[in-house]
Write a structure and sequence with these properties.
Number of strands: 10
Largest sheet: 6 strands, mixed
Protein name: Enoyl-CoA hydratase/isomerase family protein
CATH topology: 2-enoyl-CoA Hydratase, Chain A, domain 1
InterPro entries: ClpP/crotonase-like_dom_sf (IPR029045), Enoyl-CoA_hydra/iso (IPR001753)
Number of helices: 13
Strand content: 15-25%
Pfam family, one: ECH_1
Organism: Streptomyces chisholmiae
Order of helices and strands: EEHEEHHEEHEEHHEHEHHHHHH
Structural class: alpha/beta
Distance between the termini: 57 Å
CATH superfamily: 2-enoyl-CoA Hydratase, Chain A, domain 1
CATH architecture: Alpha-Beta Complex
Strand order of the largest sheet: 1-2-3-5-7-10
């Protein structure tokens, strides 16, 4: 079997633990290439019985996954091709999260930096997430772009934090610190940054070393919920907004003002609030 070659991921495996490092400079946007490669990597691992745990981290200490590429419409041919290979009842963004959510292995996110929009949806789709208390941040930025989360975020949030807090997250579009996210149930726990690597490594190794059948039995007993109806509603809500000319102008203004650059992404909320017409 030919080993896939990735341009946005580094994939390795040892002792029952696969490690996927996200690496898409300058700020790790979730673009068409990364979505395609994530689907390829997860599909390949799905059939690998030697792997029991998958740990996701980032090559960039500031940005785990910035968000979906705000210029993704410029790659419409690639996007259509990716959509053609997605399940019929999911959009291309939801397809990534649902593949992750239904992965047979235990999936763990190690969040040292920021995850917004599609990046936050990715974090919430994983089985577990652990974050650095001093440096991690997570948020659904979409409302400031004139849209709503469209990659599973509304459904994953409601499942994790409840409807009231999901509405808070979506409609404030704030960047939440790790300790608040943990208190909400959005992530498992916040840890001191200098303890994050060791803690996640220990959890991953311990799970991978469990007796045969335990991981599979646990995931059968605690299956991912069927979110089909909610994901359809989410896609309809997202599609209605993204088609508006005002939304396209807002996204374009955000890109002109520095979105998807390291400087702009450090306070993307402030940048996008400044782009909203008053």
């Amino acid at each position: 079997m030919t080993t896939p070659v990735y341009s946005t991921l580094h994939v390795s495996s040892a002792d029952g633990v696969a490690r996927i490092v996200l690496d898409n400079p300058p700020v790790n946007v979730l673009d068409v290439t990364m979505m395609r490669e994530l689907r390829t990597a997860l599909d390949a691992l799905r059939g690998d019985s030697s792997v029991r745990v998958i740990v996701f981290s980032s090559a960039d200490p500031e940005f785990f996954l910035a968000h979906v590429d705000m210029g993704i419409a410029e790659r419409m041919d690639d996007l259509r091709q990716l959509a053609a290979s997605a399940p019929a009842d999911l959009n291309v963004f939801q397809a990534v999260g649902e593949l992750l959510r239904h992965q047979p292995q235990v999936t763990i996110v190690k969040l040292a930096g920021k995850a917004r929009g599609g990046g936050a949806e990715f974090v919430a789709a994983a089985d577990m997430a652990f974050a650095a208390a001093e440096t991690a941040g997570i948020g659904q930025i979409e409302a400031l772009m004139g849209i709503v989360p469209g990659g599973g975020g509304t459904q994953y949030l409601r499942d994790r934090v409840g409807r009231n807090r999901a509405l808070e997250v979506v409609l404030t579009a704030d960047l939440f610190d790790a300790e608040t996210a943990a208190s909400y149930g959005w992530i498992n726990r916040a840890l001191p940054a200098d303890q994050l690597d060791a803690y996640v490594d220990r959890v991953a190794r311990d799970i991978a070393a469990l007796p045969d059948g335990v991981v599979e039995a646990a995931k059968r007993a605690l299956p991912a919920d069927d979110l089909t109806d909610g994901l359809r509603r989410e896609d309809e809500a997202w599609a209605t907004q993204i088609a508006l000319p005002a939304v396209q102008r807002l996204i374009a203004q955000g890109l002109r003002d520095g979105a998807q650059t390291p400087a702009g992404e450090r306070d993307l909320e402030g940048l996008m609030r400044g782009a909203v017409p008053r």
